[in-house]
Write a structure and sequence with these properties.
Blueprint lengths: L21 H7 L1 H21 L3 E5 L2 E5 L16
Antiparallel strand pairs: 1-2
């Protein structure tokens, strides 16, 4: 419900994040790829911790892979800058 006068007060002292160009982000793919890789890594780690198999697609079929057989390799380095 709006206060009397029908307007909400807004603060002009808050710092704003710069606008992001979503079209550019999808065209460059870097941020999207990094987010997807991080999400997959997190899902595999969770499956490993819980001992649950992972579903994947092989030769046109869904197959279950034991979590312990998945090798994630070293954790990617965080970019500095």
């Amino acid at each position: 419900m709006a206060p009397r006068g029908g307007r909400y007060k807004t603060s002009t002292t808050m710092a704003r994040e710069p606008e992001k160009d979503i079209s550019k982000i999808f065209l460059e793919r870097t941020l999207v790829d990094e987010a997807m890789n991080a999400a997959v890594r997190e899902a595999v780690l969770r499956h490993k911790q819980l001992g649950l198999p992972l579903a994947t697609w092989r030769d046109g079929k869904v197959v279950w892979v034991p979590a312990e057989s998945v090798d994630l390799g070293p954790e990617p380095r965080a970019e500095q800058g």
